[in-house]
Amino acid sequence: MKIWLIFWLLYGAAFASDFITKNEYARMLYQNPRGIGCDKCHGSGGEGSLISKYRHFDKKTKQVIDDELRAPRINNLDFETFKEGVLSARSVMPSYFLTDEEINLLYEYVINFNKDKK
């Protein structure tokens, strides 16, 4: 009896396509793709969030100005804009070196935030 159980478990494992679904993998990428997650700046739903408040000196007006750094909303972008944002070199957003498939999965995951909440 144990032999049959082991046989069927091995058979099932050998022909299983994935251990996690594409949506689970996309969620993992969004939360922690390569050490820091998208959700830390763009929010848990891709709505964007405040990263930092700071002050700087404006040379023209010679005044100290309060300013803030915000991560943009990403759950309403078209695919090309999203991909360009992920791949472009920015001084604030880290480079993740994602594959095209990972970018596609992330995009589908982010776009479906609004659909999942309804």
From TrEMBL:
Keywords: Heme, Iron, Metal-binding
Pfam families for this protein: Cytochrom_C
Keyword Metal-binding: yes
GO molecular function term, any single one: metal ion binding
Chain segments annotated as coiled-coil in the UniProt record: none
Residue stretches making up the Cytochrome c domain: 37-110
Keyword Metal-binding: yes
Protein name: Cytochrome c domain-containing protein
Gene source species: Campylobacter showae CSUNSWCD
